[in-house]
## 1
Amino acid sequence: MVRLYFDDGYNGNIDGMLEGVRLCSLHKGGKKVMVTPGLVESRDALNLQLIEAINEVFDIVIVTGSLNAELFNKNLKVKQKVMLADKSSLTAVLANQTKSGDIILFANDAPNFI
């Protein structure tokens, strides 16, 4: 078995991101991992709605960038959260935190400066 990668990086709206979360909830296997900066051009209320959905599905969430970091850090209730100021160490974090059978969702892959 291999790690499953779900690249939904071009999706930056609440409906699409919630659908990505729903699809990952169907995965039967290893851990569910999400990599996201959250919703970039949005209100806190929508990010909180996304966080609620994430809390119900994911084991590990890797938040990239500082834009929504405080909101996610305060409200994520997953087993493990990783806060990255930028994506420079993302590959190493994924290599250390995931294994065969896990699903990794890349949701709204914003630029590094966000």
## 2
Amino acid sequence: MTKIVLVIDDDPELGKLIETILKPLELTVHQAYSGDDGLKQAYTLHPDLVILDIMMPGLDGFEVCSRLRELTSFPILMLSARSHENDMLHGFNVGVDDFLRKPFSKNELEARVKALLRRSNNDSAAETPYINTYNDPVLEIDLSSKTVKLRGAIVELSPKEYDLLACLVREQGKIMSHRKLVREAWGEPYINGQAVSSLYIYYLRNKLKDGQYGHQYIRTLWGRGYWFAPRDGGEPS
């Protein structure tokens, strides 16, 4: 079945350019020229990928992404003419999967779209053969249902926070480098990947109240990365 890409950008010419680039990949491209229209089309089309601009009249890309993430998990590629690190971090925090700076090349757009669709296919396939659950008297994690509970209460995590936690839990007891964590959660090794992973580990620790109930789950091995430590576990491998 042909995959659907929804482009949400107020620049029709850019939308046509993206459609021209992606058409040879056998992708069906739909266009929306405002945030409101993009949300309506997303709910109707159920696209396999959304390409979303930041700067638009009315709802900007961050708000659109945040609303999409309330109901959907398909990959979102955000376009930006700006290069501020804060924009990228804010985007990841509201659920963006990848960033592409304008102007972009044909090859770069193709590569990022293919990578996001490939990851989406893998997520939709059979569950990973790694560990899918973790339970102790304080923390419960079920990766198959994407549920995290702390002392019986649901912990609300952003998509990227969840992806990082899932990576650590699947490989619990093993040291995960910054590069591997960023690759697992974002699909590409960013230049400032260590800063990004460190920031989201900080968010995770705060939401899990890590260390406040007699045990620290997410631990740092300086110079190497992080590892998830079960309450009854030993040293990392």
